[in-house]
Amino acid sequence: MKKLRFGKSKFSGKGFYIALAISLVAVGTATTVAISKTIGDLSGDSLNLPSTSSVSEWGYSDVTKDVDNTKSDIPKVSSAAPSSAPASSQEPVSSAATQAKQAKSNTYAMPVTGEITKEYSNGELVKSETMGDWRTHDGIDIKGDANTPVKACCDGTVKEIKNDPMWGTCITLEHADGYTSYYYGLSETAQVKQDQTVAVGDVIGTIGTTNQLEIAEPSHLHFGMKKDGKWIDPTSVIK
């Protein structure tokens, strides 16, 4: 039997390294080819990317052109402020009762129906038949028998009821607009009370014989009026 002899291989030494280098070159070439093919598959055509014309300048797809921004069933909101209902041009009409009451409150009437026997002197001195001297006559004397009803000359309030030593029983009424009326020489029994509200024509008393300053004259009512605290002629208010 022959002995086997092992000698140096043809790949030993330098030959081995040459073969290794060739293998590495082959692997590198194959890798390069594979990478090139992959890059080709990833090109813009194979991915079907949208063209740059459909991309807005902000980098978002411009899809507004495909959206219908109009909708017919949405109500429009007006920017103007809601207008208020126009005010009525007509003033509310007062009832007939209210108008009659207002007219009545401004009505003045004589407290007694009768002849004026002595007029308002307007600051002038006139002779007193009872006292025999000269003095102003700050009212009017209306002729009337004793116990003749005396009425309020206007709507008002009873301010005072008093018994004066000279003028006798006196009643004072306050009215609107600064007017005050005075009734002198009444009988001692008054038919109203202080602070009582009266209407024009209400009976407040009767003509008496208590007026000592004018007792020498025929029976009458001494009636005076003031406006804002000053004596006035009653006939300038009562027509």
From TrEMBL:
Annotated spans, Disordered: 66-104
Pfam families recorded: Peptidase_M23
Top-level taxon of the source organism: Bacteria
Biased composition (Low complexity): 78-104
Record-annotated M23ase beta-sheet core domain positions: 136-234
CDD domains per record: M23_peptidase
PANTHER family reported for this sequence: MUREIN HYDROLASE ACTIVATOR ENVC, PEPTIDASE-RELATED
Protein name: M23 family metallopeptidase
Annotated organism of origin: Clostridium facile
Source taxonomy: Bacteria, Bacillati, Bacillota, Clostridia, Eubacteriales
